[in-house]
Amino acid sequence: xxxxxxxxxxxxxxSNGSALSITPGSGDEWLVTHLLVEGDGWSVRxxxxxxxxxxxxxxxxxxxxxxxxxxxxxxVKFVLTESExxxxxxxxxxxxxxxYSAIKTKD
Length: 107
Prior knowledge:
Jelly Rolls, single chain, 4-stranded antiparallel sheet, 51% strand
């Protein structure tokens, strides 16, 4: 993949309590532009999260936290690397679809 290529996965099925890790390959950097969730009860967390910090659209336990309380396509801006990435965690009560769209910004 080259810089400015679009990376996306809009068909990931995630079971309740599991997460979709959005992780670039070694040496790559991605700008995530959209998250897609089905059902209510999703959260976006840093990969090192111990269940306290959220990142995203609604306030919660810390100054940089949120949860995705409604289904839909969300416009976001996250810069990710192989060592600093996010997890989209399902707490809807069932297996549902989720996804993302990103642009490769660095090799």
